[in-house]
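User: Please check token order:
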Amino acid sequence: MLKIKSKIWIESNNGILLSEGRVQLLKMIDETGSLNKASKALKISYQKAWRLIDEVSKTTKQPIIETKIGGAKGGGTILTPYGKSLISIYETINKDCWQFLDEQLKKHALC
């Protein structure tokens, strides 16, 4: 069985808004409540994680994360509702794209 493989990303004039890696980071922030914990879980440096979030934030019109100032346990990072919506939007577009590519492949007899 043949499959088309492709990576999807969404970019603007300001740069990349969303990609698989950026969405994984957003999901991990949502899961862990911390940019630091998310970066460790994904095995990327905190600086790289912060840069990726900063690049997405500069491309969007709404905040994607909020930082919490904590007490004894420290602070944390949470996704805004808009940040969560970006995950859903990206995943829907990605799924639709894969379905389209599979349909296109079925139209052509390659083997």
